Amino acid sequence: MEHSIFIHILSMLVIAIVAIALLRRIGLPAILAYLLTGVVSGPSGFHWFTQLQMQSVAELGVVLLMFTLGLEFSVPRLWAMRRTVFGLGSAQMIVTALVAGGVAMLVGQNLVAAVVIGSAIALSSTAIVLKLMNEQGWLRRRHGELSVSVLLFQDLAVVPLLILMPLLANDGTQMSFNAIAWGLLSGILAFLGLMSFGKWILPRIFDEVARSRSNELFVLSTLVVALVTGAFTQWLGLSMALGAFIAGMLLGESQYRRQLEADIRPFRDLLMGLFFISIGMLLDFNLVMQYWWQVLLILISVVLAKIVIVYGLLKLVGEKAKIALSTAISLGQVGEFSFVLLALAVNYQLLENEVSTVLVAVAVISMSIAPWLIRHSVDVAKKLTGGNNKPQDEPVEIRLPVSDDNDLVLILGYGRVGQTIARFLKTEAVPYMVMDLDPTRVTEARAAGENIYFGDACRMALLKKMGIRQASLVVVTFCEPRQSEECLAVARKLAPEVKILVRTRDDSNLHELKEAGATQVIPESLEGSLMLVSQVLFKCGVPLARIIKRLESERRNHYQYLHGFFSGTETDFTLDLLHAVSLANGASAVGKTVADIPWQTLDVELRAVRRRGEEIDPPPADWILRRNDILMLVGKPRSIEKAEEYLLQG
């Protein structure tokens, strides 16, 4: 029997791995893979497990999810965004919940079920929206800020909903609003009590834990704090997830926040996977097929209703049509916390299984189409509202001058690197202009008298206005490789002759940027190595002129000798590595010349040959390889493996 359970668990994990790998390739979130695994493993599939068997373990996933949500909860950030968070966010939640709950009552659901349905539909997916907007670089744009504000309020609204769920489970008696009000009040009092108690006690506990310098103790303490606070609120008749959220809030402002988040993440991800698997087990495909047209009708109604509601609210407060519509489209899906509410509602018998199955199916499909909707939200909004609208991201009061100065340096991106370059240019009286997409940074820099303008450096029209065709030099300082590549392509298209310097973190995409048109690519990590080398050589008495000559030679050769390094325990398989191959007696390459080896086919570079302590760099083509020669190869790990096999075995 135990052996059978082990086989079932192993099979379920294999299905989850395969499903995640396949869905990630087509750009769908891992949540859907877990739901699919639950469907296959549950009553609708092989019936290895039931939802009840997974419930206890799955609830721990929700507890840890709420704990990490509490860690990310920032009171200063909330206060800075209070107008949009509590204004737009609360309006969206209330209006959407009332509309969805009202429709549910019209089709025969009772008041309790209507409250659950309305609350579940009102939530959107924080994980999907934030991840995709971050990939697109939209978090600092207006529609990104509005989306984050709404999602932040939704995350906060989950807390009273978690308090409300057990209060609504009153064994079938009529719901008393006085009882609910008293329950909410007791929940708030418990919340404040735990906050007051933990503000002074928990940081001191973790101070002692940190002094022990034991990773195991730190991880264990984190898990115990999350579970103990959850057990306490459950003992008060509230939800375990509420207590974990409070514990996360208590520690969110401490210096241990990042470490706590990193320690808890593996457990959270694993247990949340099991939670979504348990949700998938609730899906009865027979019911879904039976009510397929209701599922599609509800799906279309939910997505369109949420889009219309958010769009209408944003238009009421004076937002541009394009911004309002792109925000609304981004928030049109149903969120992961909706699964939490639906699961609790089924456990507390607040919702019928048939209704829950239909709503889970609607949520799954809406999350499946969410990536496409979010990625194309701006394009769809532009087409529907008219493409001639002035983009919201370009302040009307700033008019970009066209510069005729042939010595102008154009700096794209005004972070630390851009600001450092600007300071040195100012010292040398070299004229420059800057473009950046951070409105706060642009406002502060302009107030200080900097020649900086707000805008997206990847847009052709803005680069034309900045005078890129008259500039002598363009410096791209972005951190994100995708943004740098896009900006480089536009700049090179507008100004084929201009010199373009591109800053990168490392040399992983150096050749791609050079091929895309960069005059020179400056990898930070390699330049840092060269600066350190120059200091070492200078301290060792090497003449300064010789040091400068060596550094310039290295740069002209595109950091040739800084690309390959001996690998350590943690190998990055995307970078070139340096590997030594010793030719033993009987090796296939012994007796052959360097030219006889198909280096291009093997996709490796022969950096040098060492023989009897002497290094030949590089060896000539007619160099004959002998026994005990050591060949220094540079290439990707897989290519080096093939090359070593060829050199030794043929």
UniProtKB/TrEMBL annotation:
SUPFAM superfamilies: NAD(P)-binding Rossmann-fold domains (SSF51735), TrkA C-terminal domain-like (SSF116726). Keywords: Antiport, Ion transport, Membrane, Potassium, Potassium transport, Transmembrane, Transmembrane helix, Transport. Residues 565-649 form the RCK C-terminal domain. It is a multi-pass membrane protein. One of its GO terms (biological process) is proton transmembrane transport. It holds the Pfam family TrkA_C. Residues 406-523 form the RCK N-terminal domain. The chain crosses the membrane at residues 6-23, 30-50, 56-73, 85-105, 111-134, 146-168, 180-202, 214-232, 268-285, 291-314, 323-349, 355-374. GO terms for cellular component: endomembrane system; plasma membrane. It is found in: Endomembrane system. GO terms for molecular function: antiporter activity; monoatomic cation transmembrane transporter activity. Belongs to the monovalent cation:proton antiporter 2 (CPA2) transporter (TC 2.A.37) family. PANTHER family: K(+) EFFLUX ANTIPORTER 3, CHLOROPLASTIC. This is Monovalent cation:proton antiporter-2 (CPA2) family protein. It comes from Shewanella algicola.
